[in-house]
Write a structure and sequence with these properties.
globular; alpha+beta
Length: about 230
């Protein structure tokens, strides 16, 4: 599951196969960029602008660029390729980002938290590396996220389905873009090893649900010990 979720294009293929909303994207390999650049650019232009250009297999928002002008695409792809030679270009999703924590139950079924939101100041373009790790004055956790109840329910249902579609075990955090005006809920990514400091979103979401930090760790350890080794 972690291998699949770390690879953004693979994640999207699996989610789409499961009938889950994951947005539109194009993948550009190193070979395509070197030998079929015109064809690759044509596929990307069909997504419209703006788009997000990302390394296909990286975390912490490294190498990501928001591109609003076609003339900036090549530079953005070159930047992403410095992190990973395979690049994903995603159509911009509307709304704002919310996160849902998933915790496997003793019966193997996923449990989900109420969604939370990383609320950012208006001058933050997107949740990039600098904002994520050094922008504590510009972001805050909003738990639960202030979204309509029916959309929160939809987020939780889809998060559990994504957990199972990718074959996750133990824990995961599923990140969404929710647009209340369009009534849309779209998966942004699935993180199979989310941040786990006492102040991170994942444990904070479960704390809101009545499961404290120590109890959360105990549950995860018990789940791990209950699993057989090898294929399962």
């Amino acid at each position: 599951a972690s291998a699949a979720a770390m690879d953004k294009p693979t994640t999207k293929v699996l989610l789409h196969q499961a009938g889950l909303p994951a947005g539109k994207w194009e993948t550009v390999t190193a070979r395509q960029w070197k030998h079929d650049r015109f064809e690759a650019m044509g596929r990307i232009e069909n997504l419209g602008l703006p788009v997000f250009v990302k390394p296909a297999r990286a975390g912490s928002s490294l190498g990501i660029t928001k591109v609003s002008a076609a003339g900036d695409l090549e530079a953005a792809i070159t930047k992403a390729q410095a992190v990973d030679p395979r690049v994903i270009v995603e159509q911009e999703l509307t709304g704002f980002e919310v996160e849902c924590a998933v915790l496997e139950g003793a019966d193997g079924r996923p449990r989900t938290s109420e969604p939370g939101r990383i609320a950012m100041d208006d001058d933050v373009v997107f949740y990039d590396y600098e904002t994520k790790y050094f922008g504590e004055d510009t972001v805050r956790l909003e738990i639960p996220a202030k979204i309509p109840a029916h959309l929160a329910t939809q987020v939780r249902q889809i998060a559990g389905q994504a957990f199972e579609a990718l074959g996750c075990e133990g824990l995961a955090r599923v990140d969404f873009f929710v647009d209340p005006e369009k009534e849309s809920v779209v998966i942004n990514e699935v993180n199979t090893m989310p941040g786990f400091t006492p102040f991170s979103m994942y444990p904070k979401l479960w704390e809101h649900m009545g499961i404290g930090y120590s109890q959360l760790m105990e549950e995860l350890i018990s789940l791990a010990l209950s699993r057989p080794v090898g294929l399962r």
